[in-house]
Amino acid sequence: MAKAASKAKTKTKAKTKAKPKAVAKKKAKPKPAPKTQTKAKPKAKPKTKTKPKVKAKAKSRPKGASPGAKAPDFRLRDGNGKMHRLASYQGKKVVLYFYPKDDTPGCTLEADDFNKENKKFEAKGAAVLGVSPDNEVSHKRFSEKLDLGYSLLADPDGLVATQFGAYGEKTLYGMKFKSVFRTTFIIDEEGIIEKVFKNVQVEGHAKEVLKAL
Q: Cα–Cα distance between 102 and 98 in angstroms, integer?
């Protein structure tokens, strides 16, 4: 009996000795520090790439002919091969408009608008002439397509447009090239420039010119 009692005591002692170890383990575990809520920085919006403008920008536009100056004379052929000279129009007004290219949306709208008002221009004693770097064949096709009642003149090298200050360097989609600046001149009966329309917006332009006569 004494032996059994001593064994029971040793077991209870062992159990009591084991408890502190378990407590020690619990104490050894460091408590995680409370997470401080940091305000999330707003995400920077991704930079959207701006689409390049379709409209070509002029880098350096020449001064060209201005109101009050004598209009440069020229000799240019139309789509039928007929030669036109500014001097041959002396005694009547001339509406000379420069445009970039046949059969393109803006140039088609401009040509068609001038055509719709052509009889009114004639009634005011003015002849309408369109000029672009396109050749005679292109002009003939474009004129027939729109059934134009006035002539389109071929200026393939842009020499006449340069004399009038309606030709120079442009930039489109980062590429540089030379082309026509959409410009209109009203030239009086003596060959003097009365009015210049630069950076023309095609819609309603023909009516704008008609009012200025």
A: 11
Q: Cα(111)–Cα(203) distance, rounded to whole angstroms? A: 11
Q: Which of 177, 145, 155 is nearest to 97 (CA)?
A: 155
Alpha-carbon distance 135 to 138, whole Å?
Answer: 5
Instruction: Determine whether 82 is exposed, middle or buried from the number of CB atoms within 10 Å of its CB (0-12, 13-18, 19+).
Output: exposed
pLDDT of residue 124: 96
- Per the structure block, which two tokens stand in for 53? 């403008």
Distance, in Å, from the CA atom of 105 to the CA atom of 167, rounded to the nearest integer, reads 20
Radius of gyration of the chain (CA): 42
Residues with catalytic annotation?
107
Residues 162, 157: Cα–Cα separation, whole Å:
9
Give the separation between CA 8 and CA 170, rounded to whole angstroms: 106
Burial class from Cβ neighbours inside 10 Å (0-12, 13-18, 19+) for residue 204 reads exposed
Q: Considering only CA atoms, which of 170, 160, 169, 164 is closest in space to residue 183? A: 164
User: Residue 125: CA atoms inside 13 Å, Cβ hemisphere, count?
Assistant: 9
Write out pLDDT tens, residues 143-176. Answer: 999 999 999 999 999 999 999 999 988 777 788 8
Q: Where are the alpha helices (DSSP H) in the chain?
A: 2-28, 105-116, 118-123, 136-146, 159-163, 205-212
3-state secondary structure of 98: strand
Q: Please name the helix (run of DSSP H) or strand (run of DSSP E) that holds residue 101, with its range, or none.
A: none
